[in-house]
Amino acid sequence: MHSFMAGFLFTIFSAIFWGLSSACGQYLLDIKKVSAEWLVVVRLLASGIFLFFIALKNQKRDIFLIFSDKKDFFILIFYAIFGLFLCQYTYFLSIKLSNAAIATILQYTSPAFIMIYMAVINKKFPTKLEILSLFLVMGGVFFSNSSKI
To answer: Among 26, 43, 98, 143, which one is least packed by beta carbons within 10 Å?
Structure first.
């Protein structure tokens, strides 16, 4: 029961902080006129430094093992640029160009694109439930954006 409650609380707080982050990002982008590039770089650097010191405290010197294998190191760099930076950058740029709500809705369409990608790669047509989900997601994005038109 303890791990269930912890998971529940982590889920609740992550949703709260995600929403707070979006609203703060929109405030910084719209009112304070910071650039999306600056915001993402500062955000990722600050969180990276914070997580580095937590890992250093808990893992000691094992955190530097990533540098012992060039392949792992390059995978980490690739993920940092294309997985973290571009994801954060496009999200905050979407907030700047529209608003936090629209950017969040657009971000939640990524599973639909992953589904399409996997269908093409595996040469397997999506199931009826997956297709229904795809249409519902796209319908939600359409109707949420139609109020701005």
So the answer is: 143
